[in-house]
Structures are given as C-alpha cells and as structure tokens.
Design a protein that fits this description.
11 strands, 213 residues, 4-stranded antiparallel sheet, alpha+beta, 5-stranded mixed sheet, binds benzoic acid, 7 helices
Length: 213
C-alpha cells in the first residue's frame, strides 16, 4: 500500500454501505467528496460526529460536496446505530456509512494506524475534488472529535483557490481578505483583481475575496 499524498487520485473502490452498494468514483460524480472514518459504532464521540455531519447537510450541499463515512463495523451495526444517532442528536443521518468489515477501504486509505489501534480506524478525513484528486488529508485520534466548521472552512478555501490565483491566510473564513499567489506579478494582479490590492510586502499582497457578489 503506497502512502496517499495530496494530488494523488483517491483510490476507487466498491463497498457495502448503509445506503447500498457504493462505487466510489461513480458515487462522487462531479461533486467534491469528504470520505471520513471513525473508530467504531455505538461510541460517544463518533455519535456526536455523525450527528453533526448530518446536521451540516445543507452546508455540504451548498458546496457541491458529498459526505461518506466509514468504519470496520458491519451493516447491521451501522443500521442500528443510525437509529441511536438520529434519536440522540436530533437529526437524520443523510449520507452513507461504509461497512468495511474486511478493511479493504481502510487499508486502501491507510486509515488503520497500528500504534494507535491495530483493529480500528482512526479519524481520517480525505477531501476529494471533482477530478478525484486528494486535496486534503487530516488525521485525528479516536479521543478527539472533529470540528466540522473547520472542514467547511477548508472546503471553501480549496474551492476558492482552485479557481482563483489566491491563497487563504491563517484563520481565514469565507468573505475575508485573501492573499495573492506569489506567482502572480503586480501587473497581472491589477488585471485579475480590479478592485485593487494592498502590498504589505512584495510577497504579501492582500485583496478582497474574488468570488463575492
Ligand atoms: C468515541 O467515539 O467516543 C471513541 C471511539 C473509540 C475510542 C475512543 C472514543
């Protein structure tokens, strides 16, 4: 198993999920994707994570992003646990959870870190662009639930910077100033960013987020 890196094609797979058989690339279609693993069903942190992901459905849809979860538990376990998530998190799970009992997908994506736990997946996150390249990889330990606002923030940045010659500074959020890519000359910047830009240093130039109305 080769290490997956940013820019690699997200490995394709066929897997059983709580919403039926998933052909991963076909399932993603022209959407962005978030593939994320959790250690185990019927556990407290995971319950809050999947409930939160379900509640963020509209935010993911706005970003043309499909979410897909995974653990090494089986389908019957997923289906029973979904009822608990829906009940305790006051939501309805609205994305598939892969039942990766044979660890095929977990191994493909290196989601089992033996020194953390030899059998269970860690909290991996892969953000995948419509061309199926991996744009973001984050790994959290079992003891730390993910921040789904951060995931949305990163998707906003990835989508912005995919189409504009900008990058997003520390703690950036949608609507805030961005930095102009170092590869862009000042002459080009004048054309690309007609509202202007501030040159704090020759390498640090700020401009309004370009895709705002
Ligand atoms: C949890 O989701 O709460 C959890 C799962 C595995 C290990 C530790 C915590």
């Amino acid at each position: 198993m080769a290490t997956l890196r940013l820019g690699d094609i997200a490995p394709d797979f066929i897997a059983q999920s709580s919403e039926g058989t998933i052909n991963f690339h076909e399932y993603l279609g022209d959407s962005w994707g978030v593939l994320f693993s959790h250690p185990a069903d019927y556990t407290p942190v995971c319950t809050t994570e999947l409930g939160t992901a379900a509640k963020y459905k509209d935010e993911f849809t706005k970003r043309n992003t499909k979410v897909i979860a995974l653990s090494v538990d089986g389908l019957a376990s997923h289906k029973g646990w979904i009822n608990d998530i829906n009940e305790t998190q006051q939501t309805t799970v609205n994305f598939p959870i892969i039942a990766d009992e044979d660890k095929k997908v977990s191994n493909l994506y290196d989601m089992i870190h033996p020194k953390a736990d030899s059998n269970l997946t860690v909290r991996s996150v892969f953000v995948i662009a419509p061309n199926k390249t991996i744009k973001l990889i984050i790994t959290y330990p079992a003891s730390t639930g993910r921040n789904f606002d951060e995931l949305l923030r990163v998707i906003d940045s990835l989508q912005l910077t995919a189409y504009h010659k900008v990058a997003t500074p520390a703690n950036w959020e949608h609507g805030q100033e961005v930095v102009i890519s170092p590869s862009v000359s000042n002459e080009e910047a004048t054309v690309l960013f007609p509202k202007g830009f501030k040159e704090v240093k020759p390498y640090l130039r700020l401009t309004e987020q370009p895709n705002l109305n």
